[in-house]
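batch_manifest entry 22 of 60
target: Exodeoxyribonuclease-3
source organism: Dokdonella fugitiva
requested by: lab member K.T.
priority: normal
notes from requester: please return tokens only, no post-processing; we will run our own comparison against the previous entry in this batch. if the run fails, retry once and flag.
--- input ---
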Amino acid sequence: MKIATFNINGIRSRLGNLLQWLEREEPDVVCLQELKAPNAMFPQKALAEAGYESAWIGQSAWNGVAILARGVRPVTTVRGLPGDPSDVHSRYLEAAVDGVMIGCLYLPNGNPQPGPKFDYKLAWFERLIAHASALCASRHPFVLAGDFNVVPTDFDIYNTRSWLKDALLQPESRECYARLLEQGWVDALRAMHPNERIYTFWDYFRRHWETNSGLRIDHLLLNKAIASRLVDAGVDRWVRGEKGASDHAPTWIVLKAAPPARRRTSARKRA
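--- output ---
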């Protein structure tokens, strides 16, 4: 099973890029962020014609997340991150796909900081940590994927000099991410590439794409029940180089099939 996360940065304007990538790479499950489209404008029909069923939460002009599944319909289980009923941002969605639970998230950016947007980022992160604790400990396979808007360490950025005041690198943001991992989550991309400078985001300024001046802010975290099935992980960098591309590239993992369930032997047969 190939599971990917991709901040599409506007699904209506970049639908062509998305469809091209789906056709070429054929991921089984896709978590999308920053749809920037209300529910009624989500391109469900075009994606279905490409072989993908969808679950989504839209929002006009901002945010929005979706889970796509190739050939099967995602079964939605949670819409919106628990913990704050007043939060109307479309940033979190959970669904079951072929026996795997998928959590798709778009964590707040938090800029400018300090200020209310950074406070919201940290509060949202605390809600995520609280919600994720039971998911990590669950016996059900769970993948928590999305744009976390956190650069975990200095090794995950080309150079910190221009980003020291950015919310993505603040000690509070990194500390929240570290506490999330301490629950037992496996950062799949880093686990597969422990010594490689690997990026998932290149902004549109100062020729950052052309000079590979990137950041790693898109993550796929695996709970204990599924981490042993990880066999590969990577970034489809070619997507970022296409005309009109998002400033993110799809980031993916490959999981081997689950072992067959053991059949219980009755006491009578054992005797």
